[in-house]
Amino acid sequence: MATSRLLPQGRASIHLLAIAQLLGDHKHPGLEMCGCRTSVPSGKQNSVSQAAPASTKKGPPAAAGMPKGVPVAKQLASIKALRKGSDLEKAFATAALVYNNYADPESKLSKSETKSLLQSQFWHFIQGQENKPKYQEIISSLDEESENKINFEDFMIMLVSLTLMSDLLQEIRNVKTTK
């Protein structure tokens, strides 16, 4: 999965630069904020979860492997600059904090950890997507060389890609916005 196939690199880099500061990437000169480090997927197709029938929808998989510690809501509340932040700013800060809670000391996730994070924290967006070619491509890239690491920028681009293909996005678009 190449970054350029998911989003134009320049746009992603500009918008994610501020979020990366929450993670401290600016303090680690070896961590680049451009270019994808994930491998190009093969024809192998795997799914994160099986689609549940509409009448027996299950919740997200158990939070096995979830980091223990301070809840994200408390972490978010501790960021002075966001106390009067917009919903959008808080949403992106929450994504950054969740990533940071799972990431290693170098602010990276292995591909297997990324897949686990998606299964536990992004389940409602990925359920029912198993037959979509782009979804299969993304998940295949996580299954290949699962010990390889993913940086924050690549993770966010992956989240945006999964969101754009999700059936849940249409439900979100249909939410009534006026009284």
From TrEMBL:
<dbReference type="InterPro" id="IPR034325">
    <property type="entry name" value="S-100_dom"/>
</dbReference>
<feature type="compositionally biased region" description="Polar residues">
    <location>
        <begin position="40"/>
        <end position="53"/>
    </location>
</feature>
<dbReference type="GO" id="GO:0005509">
    <property type="term" value="F:calcium ion binding"/>
</dbReference>
<dbReference type="GO" id="GO:0046914">
    <property type="term" value="F:transition metal ion binding"/>
</dbReference>
<feature type="domain" description="EF-hand">
    <location>
        <begin position="130"/>
        <end position="165"/>
    </location>
</feature>
<dbReference type="GO" id="GO:0048306">
    <property type="term" value="F:calcium-dependent protein binding"/>
</dbReference>
<dbReference type="InterPro" id="IPR013787">
    <property type="entry name" value="S100_Ca-bd_sub"/>
</dbReference>
<dbReference type="InterPro" id="IPR011992">
    <property type="entry name" value="EF-hand-dom_pair"/>
</dbReference>
<protein>
    <recommendedName>
        <fullName>EF-hand domain-containing protein</fullName>
    </recommendedName>
</protein>
<dbReference type="Pfam" id="PF01023">
    <property type="entry name" value="S_100"/>
</dbReference>
<feature type="region of interest" description="Disordered">
    <location>
        <begin position="40"/>
        <end position="68"/>
    </location>
</feature>
<dbReference type="InterPro" id="IPR002048">
    <property type="entry name" value="EF_hand_dom"/>
</dbReference>
